[in-house]
Structures are given as structure tokens and as C-alpha cells.
């Protein structure tokens, strides 16, 4: 199937959105946080964790719906999951605008890992960083895959949609599930 002008426009838009989101996330790491911090900021990690958990469940339901040929429920579930994922991204950016990274194992919450703190968490530190690294890398990869799969699904390019979803779905599910795992593992070390 040849690509039409509309497809080309949306594919370019998808890549622009992907690059802009990546640039914003990188900028968050480099910019100093504005002051004062709004008090609601400290609720966001818990909301983000809940959103990831909800998206994980919805993605499994979406697969069940499509396997049972319930296309309407599949579409609705994916739209809800997409909206929640977009909300996650907004909350993530907002949180990291004001709050820099929490160090895994920082038991005394001073922002510095002592040898005792590193020893206390042991191998869990390596497990955490492996999960976090794969989560971050695959989150970068999955954004354009999700957007392209939505473009193809909503434009009823079913075969092309299926081809990209074979890759997008497991990566999206992995990112959602590992988002929950990262939240559970890092939350004891939040300094709030």
C-alpha cells in the first residue's frame, strides 16, 4: 500500500513529537529546578506509579479484547491507555522540573550515597539500574511505535497496524510494568 500525503504528514509529526519529548526530558536533567516547589509535586510520583499500573492492566485487557474480536472495546481501551500515558508524560515532566533524580539506596535522604548505604542495598542496586535503564531506553523507542500504531489503527490500515503492534505492544507493556517496578523500588528513597 502506497503512503498518501496525509500519512507522510502524520509520520513527520510523530517524529517531531518524539524528538521534542526527548529534548524536554533531557533538558529537565540539565536545568535547575524553579523555586518554590508547589506542594502537590510530592503526590506526582504516586500518581505516576498508579497510572503505570493502570496502563499495564489496560494493555492486557486490550489484548484480550482483540483476541476475542471485540474491536470496539479494544479501541476504547487503547484510547484510554493512550490518554493515561500522555497524562503520565505530563506529570513526569512536571515532577522532574521541580525534583531531580532520587538516588537508589539513599537511606538518609541526603542526596549522597555512602559506602554503608551502597552496601545496605547490595545487589538490588544493580537490579534496579538494569530495570531503570531498559525502561528508559524502551520508553524512548516505544513512543513513535505507539503513535504510528494509533495512526494506522484509526486510519483502518489494519495489516500495517498489526505489523507495528507486534513490536509496539510488548515494548509498551514492558515499559508500563517496569514503570511500576521502578516506582516500588525507588519510593522508599524519596526525600518527602
TrEMBL record:
<feature type="transmembrane region" description="Helical">
    <location>
        <begin position="9"/>
        <end position="28"/>
    </location>
</feature>
<dbReference type="InterPro" id="IPR007352">
    <property type="entry name" value="DUF420"/>
</dbReference>
<keyword id="KW-0472">Membrane</keyword>
<dbReference type="Pfam" id="PF04238">
    <property type="entry name" value="DUF420"/>
</dbReference>
<keyword id="KW-1133">Transmembrane helix</keyword>
<feature type="transmembrane region" description="Helical">
    <location>
        <begin position="126"/>
        <end position="151"/>
    </location>
</feature>
<dbReference type="InterPro" id="IPR018247">
    <property type="entry name" value="EF_Hand_1_Ca_BS"/>
</dbReference>
<feature type="transmembrane region" description="Helical">
    <location>
        <begin position="78"/>
        <end position="98"/>
    </location>
</feature>
<keyword id="KW-0812">Transmembrane</keyword>
<feature type="transmembrane region" description="Helical">
    <location>
        <begin position="40"/>
        <end position="66"/>
    </location>
</feature>
<feature type="transmembrane region" description="Helical">
    <location>
        <begin position="171"/>
        <end position="190"/>
    </location>
</feature>
<protein>
    <submittedName>
        <fullName>Putative membrane protein</fullName>
    </submittedName>
</protein>
